[in-house]
């Protein structure tokens, strides 16, 4: 019996020996790479080649994007190359135009990027190139450009503001003579994340998760989506892709958590799709994005990828944009005053608080303030492509095939060569001429990307930010609990504040 038991254990022991061997080899290779990085010290081939990226960057800079900004500001051509990361990073508008327009076909998202977000986004529009991207882009353009879908989106946002956002903030009011009251402190970023999640789910799925109800309910879908986004972003930030690939292979650590989170997202998304199939909704009687795409696509897995991609794009980016806008407004009361004055000029005295779409379009100073906020704090701080072939950028920088090429909107908003000596000032007036808004070149200001991949939801996003700003500022004063300097961001796909935005909500002081 003992010999039989031993023979049964032999295959199992062999398997564990094989796993141990793989882990040993992986650790050995990882150690070699770390030694190489330490010796290379991340040398950059720019005129400040004495600089290198080390683990101590946080001693001087709050955010990694500030470190890259520092390097790019010192570069004569606003471009640096980090060879050990095989990454060319630029804040040069000429290079951005070259990448996103002139040589668009040579700079796709690429397989490395698709692999990082593939488990979460699948074959969704933001994770594919070629024919798949063209097909989805064409459908999305037809959908988002229609007047009916814009009207539908505006109604959704209006109702979310009127019946949830404003009542929630009203219930959190602090006394005007109170400077610190923990019971009245609100994490405004958390509120905006709930607000944007409700909106994007209603717009994408036709599903209302009631996430901004006054009880602030727990949402399994939202929590799973948050975790999946965060862990996918950690893949993108990893200096050694092999590490997360090994963890995924053996279903361990963060990759195990990511897999479980994505399973929850998939189950709930597929449940919604099946319910839609049963109802057999058509374009005429349903306005949500899923119903529109179902008229063209029969594959449920493909539909899931498309809708999840739109949720990722429309949820955290909106929350990030709103949070940093109110962060800036809290530090610039003169800008708040001008927004309110413009609001009073456009709105009639007997009208309700919420402005109409046409009235919002008349508010040029507000539009300038929103764009100025996005210049300083873009929701997506950088975006990467991968060179298909050897190339030379507009500024003369040579790029090898397979190189990651990154343009950096966060750094571009901090370039004196682009915005002048006052580039760090929050100054909406830089967007105005004779009190009228004047747009900037999209390659100088690629906050909504540019060229063929320019954001289709730009106008809807800007309208939503302005609607929220007007509705809140017309009723409340927002006071940051602990005034601080530049914000500190989480490492992620979007620029979320690490500690949220803790504020006191007060009645507007006339």
From TrEMBL:
The chain crosses the membrane at residues 12-37. Its cofactor is heme. GO terms for molecular function: heme binding; iron ion binding; monooxygenase activity; oxidoreductase activity, acting on paired donors, with incorporation or reduction of molecular oxygen. Keywords: Heme, Iron, Membrane, Metal-binding, Monooxygenase, Oxidoreductase, Transmembrane, Transmembrane helix. It holds the Pfam family p450. It comes from the Eukaryota. Heme binds at residue 455. Belongs to the cytochrome P450 family. This is Cytochrome P450. The lineage of its organism: Eukaryota, Viridiplantae, Streptophyta, Embryophyta, Tracheophyta.
């Amino acid at each position: 019996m003992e010999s039989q038991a031993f023979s049964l254990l032999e295959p199992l022991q062999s398997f564990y020996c094989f796993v141990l061997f793989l882990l040993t080899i992986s650790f050995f290779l990882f150690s070699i790479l770390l030694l190489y990085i330490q010796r290379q010290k991340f040398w950059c081939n720019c005129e400040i080649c004495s600089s290198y990226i080390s683990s101590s960057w946080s001693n001087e800079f709050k955010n990694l994007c500030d470190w890259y900004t520092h390097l790019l500001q010192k570069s004569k051509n606003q471009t640096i190359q980090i060879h050990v990361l095989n990454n060319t990073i630029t804040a040069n508008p000429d290079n951005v135009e070259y990448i996103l327009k002139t040589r668009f076909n040579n700079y796709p998202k690429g397989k490395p990027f698709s692999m990082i977000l593939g488990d979460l986004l699948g074959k969704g529009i933001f994770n594919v190139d070629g024919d798949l991207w063209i097909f989805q882009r064409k459908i999305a353009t037809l959908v988002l450009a229609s007047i009916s879908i814009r009207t539908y989106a505006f109604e959704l946002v209006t109702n979310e503001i009127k019946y949830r956002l404003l009542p929630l903030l009203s219930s959190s009011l602090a006394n005007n003579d109170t400077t610190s009251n923990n019971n009245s402190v609100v994490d405004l970023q958390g509120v905006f994340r709930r607000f944007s999640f409700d909106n994007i789910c209603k717009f994408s799925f036709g599903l209302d998760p009631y996430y901004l109800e006054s009880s602030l309910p727990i949402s399994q879908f939202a929590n799973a989506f948050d975790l999946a986004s965060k862990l996918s972003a950690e893949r993108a930030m990893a200096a050694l892709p092999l590490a997360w690939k090994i963890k995924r292979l053996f279903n361990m650590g963060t990759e195990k958590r990511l897999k479980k989170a994505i399973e929850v997202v998939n189950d709930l998304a597929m449940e919604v799709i099946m319910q839609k199939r049963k109802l057999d909704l058509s374009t005429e009687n349903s306005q949500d994005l899923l119903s529109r795409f179902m008229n063209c696509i029969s594959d449920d897995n493909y539909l899931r990828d498309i809708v999840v991609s739109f949720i990722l794009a429309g949820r955290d980016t909106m929350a990030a944009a709103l949070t940093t806008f109110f962060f800036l407004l809290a530090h610039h009361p003169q800008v708040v005053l001008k927004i309110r004055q413009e609001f009073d000029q456009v709105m009639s005295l007997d009208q309700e608080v919420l402005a109409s779409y046409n009235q919002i379009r008349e508010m040029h100073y507000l539009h300038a303030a929103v764009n100025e906020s996005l210049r300083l704090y873009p929701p997506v701080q950088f975006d990467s492509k991968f060179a298909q072939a050897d190339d030379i950028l507009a500024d003369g920088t040579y790029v090898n095939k397979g190189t990651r090429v990154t343009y950096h909107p966060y750094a571009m908003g901090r370039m004196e060569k682009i915005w002048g000596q006052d580039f760090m000032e929050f100054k909406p007036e830089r967007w105005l001429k004779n009190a009228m808004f004047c747009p900037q070149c999209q390659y100088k200001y690629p906050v909504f990307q540019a060229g063929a991949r320019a954001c289709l939801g730009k106008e809807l996003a800007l309208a939503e930010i302005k609607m929220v700003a007007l509705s809140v500022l017309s009723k409340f004063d927002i006071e940051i609990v602990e005034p601080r300097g530049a914000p500190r961001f989480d490492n992620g796909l979007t620029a979320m504040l690490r500690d949220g935005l803790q504020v006191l909500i007060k009645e507007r002081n006339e």
